[in-house]
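hiii, so i know i said id send this last week but things got crazy w the move. better late than never?? heres the sequnce for the chain we talked about at the cafe, plus the structure i predicted for it. fair warning i was half asleep when i ran it
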Amino acid sequence: MGIEGLIGVMIPIFGMVFIAALVIVPRYFKSLERQKVADTLRAAIEKGQPLPPEIVDAIARDTKLPPSPARDLRTGIIWLGVAVGLAAFGIAIGFEEPDATFPMVAFAAFPGFIGLAFIVLGLINRTKA
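okay and structure toks below
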């Protein structure tokens, strides 16, 4: 197996690892954050400090923050950043392999349009509030 064959095998593997990391890493950090909160609460209980009922309710149910215009704008900007990064990656690959530029830029359009949709939602909801 030559270098081309090795690269042909490694690219899909790296792609799958990248996608898995996008899912696993945020969950891991959220788990660490919850563990730190639990440790802090345990220390407060051991010292005999009372816990406010709001904290107990927030811990008991796993709620997401309601959507807001600021969150939509931030999410949209992040998605646009992903799209620009993918497009730049495609252009960089295009210097070596010109046939790869168009598919990568086309692939970057998906997160780009998702980002634009979030930004439009954020701007529309900002005027309503």
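btw Residues 1-63 form one domain. thought thatd interest u
miss u guys!!
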